[in-house]
Amino acid sequence: MADSYEALAQTIIDGVGGAANVRALTHCVTRLRFTLADPKLADTAKLEKTDGVMKVIQAGGQYQVVVGSKVTSLYDTILEKYDIQGGGEVEPAPGEDDAKDNAVSRLMGVMSSILMPTLPVLTGAGIIKGLTALFAALGILSTTSGVYMVFYAVGDGFFYFLPIMLGYTAAKRFKCNEFIGATIGAALTYPAMVNIATTLPVAGALFGGTPFEMDYYNTFFGIPLIMPGAGYTSSVVPIMLAVWFASLLEHWFKKHLNEMVRDLLTPCLVLAISVPVTYLVIGPVVQGICGVIFLLISALFNAGIVGGLVGGALIGGGFGVLVMFGLHWVVISLGLSNIALAGFDYIMAAGGIGPMVGMAQGLCITLRTKSKKVRDLALPSFISQVLGVGEPLMYSILIPLKKPYAINILGGAIGGAIIGALKGKIYVFGGSGLFGLANYVDPSGDPANFINCCIGIAVAMVAVFIIQWIAYDFDAEKQVIGE
């Protein structure tokens, strides 16, 4: 098995232009994500014809090779065999200008690199939190029991202190001291600040008499300290911007401070400046923007059945397209921000049904096909969909055959429209596939949202199975994939 990984690893490295062309390598659950010095040296056509490679995607400033479940073994093999930096980007070559990528591409790359390292644990914690809430809603667990308290602490604790984790990964991305990033995250989730609204009387109000009126409870040298209702716990964007700002300060201080005091004063000055700026400027501005976006989304989903249908259909049908190009991280970040702001999110309620639709489609193709080769691809891809991983089915069957990919988008739109019309929500961003059902459980114990979302998912799965069965193209199967 090791030899087979080494052979495929060698082919992939040759295909991306050789080890010398690789500036950095990371990976997600199905993709090797290369940062290449010169993308033109990569042979995309050759790689896509390689057994073991499902697809090659260039997005977010990365050259992404989709290899499915063997991604971790290939990643480890490449790092062991070649002199390649793993887990982040290398320093740009002298004179190199990353501005050659457009702003959207750079934003996607930055957000992806910050969130990606947390994904496995984020998913695991989400599953634990969702299942704990589900068992409590079903009466299996008492909310006062030690079992409930311990498991809920695991699940909720990760999301509560998420800014600390993202502070660490953001610091790695922006190449500054990781513990400065984590400390900024800790300052944003410090209990005394989080609970400021319950421990201090109102000191004043900003924008009084307008829809944007905000109370504040203390000041910093006379400047109002504006805090969201739950503080910055579970927030995503404020810590990213805060650490980016801190990295600029750190690089400046390291360059200009005398070496005798540099190591001591740099962290002190960076924290003393960046944390107040985050509380006074970055946090309120970002939370205000996120709040406006949330209000617009809420207005759409609450604008009667038509608004929910349209919003849900667009998100449910379009999310899989974003995933294909690796451009879904901004949407996920917005969903996490919505949960932090309001305790729930409409976007990922519709966008998260993709694996369920893919599950029905993978099962249909497995049963319907007459090709052993297609069945050998479809069955493990169906299992991956059960676990919430959609790329294997997408790149091995749906996209090559084209029509199934359109059916997949249609199924997502159908399910998303129903969930949107019923105002479906998720309360935690956790597992996907079958585990994703726990995301829809209302912590209050009201089963209505869970039932409504399950209706949308069930209709979408049945519709996709029937459409795929009727519309299956055996000729295209033979021409594209063969026996």
Task: Give a short summary of the structure.
The chain is α+β, with helices and mostly antiparallel strands and 483 residues long.
Description:
- With 483 residues, the protein is an alpha+beta fold.
- It has 21 helices and 8 strands.
- The strands form 3 sheets. The protein has a 4-stranded antiparallel beta sheet. Strands 5-6 form a two-stranded antiparallel ribbon.
- α4 crosses α7, α8 (178-188) crosses α12 (262-301) and α18 packs across α19 (403-421).
- The longest helix has 40 residues, at 262-301.
- The protein is globular.
- The two termini are 25 Å apart.
Low-confidence stretches: 88-100
Query: What is the share of helical residues?
Result: 55-70%
Record the strand order, biggest sheet.
1-2-4-3
Assembly annotation? single chain
Structure annotation, total helices: 21
Secondary structural class: alpha+beta
Overall shape: it is globular
Give the H and E element order: HEEHEEHHHHHHHHEEEEHHHHHHHHHHH
How many E-type strands? Answer: 8
Mean pLDDT reading: 83
Topology readout:
Layout: H1 2-15, E1 22-27, E2 31-36, H2 44-48, E3 55-59, E4 62-66, H3 71-81, H4 103-115, H5 119-137, H6 146-160, H7 162-174, H8 178-188, H9 191-194, H10 196-199, E5 204-206, E6 214-216, E7 219-220, E8 223-224, H11 237-256, H12 262-301, H13 304-324, H14 329-342, H15 347-351, H16 354-368, H17 372-386, H18 391-401, H19 403-421, H20 448-471, H21 474-480
Antiparallel strand pairs: 1-2, 2-4, 3-4, 5-6, 7-8
Helix pairs in contact: 1-3, 4-7, 5-6, 7-8, 7-11, 8-11, 8-12, 11-12, 12-13, 12-14, 13-19, 16-17, 16-19, 16-20, 17-18, 18-19, 19-20
